[in-house]
Amino acid sequence: MIHPHALVDPRAEIDANVEIGAFTIIGPEVVIGAGTWIGSHAVIKGPTRIGRDNKIFQFTSIGEVPQDLKYHGERTTLSIGDRNVFREFCTVNRGTGGGGGTTSIGDDNLFMAYVHIAHDCRIGNHTVFANCASLAGHVQVGNYAVLGGFTGIHQFCRVGDHCMTGAATVAVQDIPPYVLAAGNSARPYGINVTGLKRRGFTAEGINMLKRAYKTIYKSGLRLDEAIGKIDEMVPEYGELDVLARFLKVEGRGIIR
Question: Based on the structure, what is the number of domains in the chain?
């Protein structure tokens, strides 16, 4: 399953059911789980752990050292879950000592061509990164988020569950869960209704999320007052707890 023209370090741990294409380079301290397919001309460096049934296309760079001037060769890691797809020319960097030491990616994510994931990022499950979407360091992306092509997320920002960005969006503040964002700098444009319907959210649930959105953005309330109102709505619709908890975390502030 390993092409004779691939270079695999003997200190790598490769499951017998992994396929590796020609001219791919696998470094030491790389662990790859069963069913993973790696195309030609990919470079994977360790310490990196890759789970099962991933697809890594040609010319990707996985587990390279971070593009951070504060990095001085300390041992850091990259962790990738199961059933992820990395298309051509994706780049994923390991963590830094000052950022927790680990970049982590969950399960069932799609990274289209030329996506960049910087050091110390945390990505959940079932996300889609369209072509050329890029994360700066220390970014957190929740489950089912969709980033449009050429989206850029500033360092230390958070992208909430089920949100979506338009093409060429630049976010320099946090994007709350369920929100549709676009522009440079990113502004909110309502709830990601189409995505929520596709994932089985009911009409009643979507209406509750719209009410919460209006409470944050249209009511004239301060953010702490809006959070209090949303907390009161949580017993009526439990999914609002995801939004309320997100808003309570102090960070770069939310997009306006």
Answer: 2
Burial 195-213 (b: 16+ CB within 10 A, else e): bbeeeebeeeebebbebbb
Q: Quick check: is 189 in a domain?
A: no
CB atoms within 10 A of CB 51: 20
Same domain, 12 and 109: yes
Instruction: Kindly list the catalytic residues.
Output: 119-120, 137
Q: Which residues of the chain have pLDDT under 50?
A: none
| Domain CATH code at residue 119 | 2.160.10.10
**Domain hosting residue 66, numbered range:** 7-138
In this predicted structure, what is the pLDDT of residue 41? 98
Q: pLDDT tens digits for 97-146?
A: 999 999 999 999 999 999 999 999 999 999 999 999 999 999 999 999 99
How far is residue 227's CA from residue 212's CA, in Å, rounded to a whole number? 9
